[in-house]
Amino acid sequence: MRPAILLTLLSLGLIAHAADKPLNLTPGASIRVNSIGFLPTSTKQATTLATAKNFRVLRLDSSGEREVFSAAASAPIQTAASDTNETLRILDFSAVTEPGHYVIDIPDLGRSAPFNIGTDIWNTPFTTVTRAMYLWRCGTEVTGTHNGITYHQHACHLDDGWLDHVGGGHKRHASNGGWHDAGDYNKYVVNAGVTVGLMFKALEHFPARITAVNLGIPESANTTPDLLDEIRWELDWLFTMQLEDGRVYHKLSSPNFRFWGPAANDKDPRYFAPWGTNATAHFTAMMAAAARHFRAHDPAFADRCLKAAELSWACLLKHPQQIDPDQSAFQTGGYGAPDYSARLWAAAELWETTGHASHLHEFETRAAKVAFSENGPGWGDVNDLGLATYLFSGHATGKNDPRDHVLVRRLTDDLLHHADRAVTTAAANAHARPLGVERQDWSWGCNGNVAGQTLQLHLADRLRPDPRFRETAQLALGHLFGRNYHGRSYVTGLGANPPQHPHDRRGEPAWPGYLVGGAWPDGRSWVDELGSYERNEIAINWNGALIYALAAFVEPAAK
Ligand SMILES: [Ca+2]
Ligand SMILES: [Zn+2]
Questions:
Q1: Known catalytic residue at 266
Q2: Do 80 and 223 belong to one domain?
Q3: What's the rounded Cα separation, in Å, for the pair 109 and 29?
Q4: Are 328 and 264 contained in the same domain?
């Protein structure tokens, strides 16, 4: 994904031959359970080593512990070599429905991480993971407290950025703000796309759940939903990436990944990379969607977003062939990808916001050649975002639906096919991972894919309501929060034994609310090590996916 990272870190000796070095793998956990917990009505399962025959569930409270359930484990299941290559059993305790604090106990084997049953179990994870975007803000002081630890960053990168590599000479063009991208402090327009896109989709699909959530950010006292406020922090930066003729700079980055330490100590100059059509298309899509979302809260800002979107769209029409930026001055993230899907997404958002037939035509022409993704949306493929906007368009009302009905039917069938397959895949997997466990299902950032895959499940549920879709979306979260080979949460600061050493330049203790990349090339191969950028880095696109996945289960009535 970002091969330049490897070269840079190797050359600096920050990691020694990471590509060759065998991973220091640990034995799999004895009992693996979603350590956040379960909604009272959900199916409740955990996974354990095959030595367990029987298990019990204990309720923990101030008076001690008491057994509330016991049962036999399932028959043994052998997992594939491409998965975890073990013999395991499933523990089903769906009969336990009373809200409370629990643990699974297996004689002679041990106890699981504790977990909760309740209607509000996903509220704090949603707030923490979304607030993590605020903690990523560049160009400003940020501070937050989590689990008794206060995290603080002084205002950073106030010189952003320099025009040397875009023909502007050694002059500064103000480009403060935005989010740091990942474990590094650079800012990339393309990766903002899928991140902002999924955050907007969370608001579109689950407004009653998340609109009123207080994220504890500087804008929490105003009347705008905090999630929109947080997105706006990125949009305000994105405006500075647009040229007067609508072209959009690809990124704002230091030349390499040399610096480690607090962001405010990073004095490496940061430069604009030349414009490209892919960044311009992502910019257009984000601004077009923003115009719609901000209309009710700040009409002037909505107008500004729409104007920016239309300017960049006109630029894209002038440049129908892909133009990639020259990034030879940089060794940082390239984010190179075909611009096809970003143009498709931009057309969808422009149509949804303006209703203009030309945008619908452009979208449908492109959409005729695509299907829903296999792994959920990602920075290199945002088709799912555009297809989702189209399938659930506010313009498609009754007799006045202007869409191509043949295309709508095909996309609907395709979406349902993908979602049904995710349900089947999760049901067949010992850790209920809906993404599957073939070799190609474990890849750099696959935890983000697991989270992002819930988009298709919730879209399918809107088209053809089926409790299995939401159930499977919870299983995806369960896998990320502990029902996995390691029996650990893959999200910093949340759940059982979360990552302590993420690949994050801010250092330790680990900043809270970040999904790490995950295991590959099989389910065992994840390590909690700072140097493991390819398995233990954090990134805005993965958090964007997790924000979406969590938003679906926030329960505002349970304070
Ligand atoms: Ca607010
Ligand atoms: Zn910064």
A1: no
A2: no
A3: 10
A4: yes
The Cα–Cα gap between 70 and 90 comes to: 13
Q: Which ligand is nearest to the CA of 210?
A: 1
Active site residue 324: no
- Of 117, 148, 183, the position where a domain reaches its end is 117
What's 44's domain CATH number? 2.60.40.10
Residue 224 CA to ligand 1 centre (angstroms): 4
Per DSSP, the three-state class of 488 is coil
Judged by its nearest atom, the ligand closest to the C-alpha of residue 253 is 2
Residue 556 covered by a domain? no
The CATH number of residue 304's host domain is: 1.50.10.10
Per the structure, the count of domains in the chain is 2
Q: How far is the CA of 138 from the centre of ligand 2 (A)?
A: 4
- Taking only the tens place, the pLDDT of each residue in 23-44 is 888 889 999 999 999 999 999 9
Task: With 0.85 as the threshold, say if the pTM is over it.
Answer: yes
For ligand 1, a single-atom ion, the residues with CB < 5 A are 219, 222, 224, 226, 229
pLDDT digits (tens, 9 = 90+) for 111-154: 999 999 999 999 999 999 999 999 999 999 999 999 999 999 99
Nearest to 444 by CA among 259, 182, 252: 182
Task: Compute CA distances 142 → 177, 214, 217, 365, whole Å.
Answer: 12, 17, 9, 44
Q: Cα dist. 359→252, 301, 409, 540 in Å?
A: 30, 22, 20, 29
Considering 99, 117, 135, which residue would you say is the last residue of a domain?
117
- Catalytic: 339? no
Q: Are residues 49 and 12 in the same domain?
A: no
Pick the catalytic residue: 266, 349, 534, 537? 537
Give distance in angstroms: CA of 474 to centre of ligand 1.
28
Q: Read off φ and ψ for residue 471, nearest 5 degrees.
A: -60, -45
> Is residue 109 domain-shared with residue 139, that is, in the same domain?
no
- The reply to whether 28 falls in a domain is no
3-class secondary structure per residue, 252-295:
EECCCCCCCCCHHHCCCCCEECCECHHHHHHHHHHHHHHHHHCC
Per-residue pLDDT tens over the stretch 246-300 = 999 999 999 999 999 999 999 999 999 999 999 999 999 999 999 999 999 999 9
What dihedral do alpha carbons 72, 76, 77, 83 form, nearest 10°? 100
* Structural domain range at position 64: 37-117
pLDDT reported for residue 21: 67
Q: Which residues contact 439 (CB under 8 A, 6 or more apart)?
A: 82, 521, 522
Question: Does 32 map to a domain?
Answer: no
Q: Are residues 113 and 145 in the same domain?
A: no
Select which of 293, 503, 504, 522 is catalytic: 503
Provide the angle, in degrees to the nearest 10, between the axes of the packed helices 357-367 and 340-354: 150
SS3 66: strand
> Looking at the domain assignment, is residue 29 inside a domain?
no
Q: Report the C-alpha gap between 215 and 208 in whole angstroms.
A: 15
> What is the 538 CA–ligand 2 centroid distance (Å)?
16
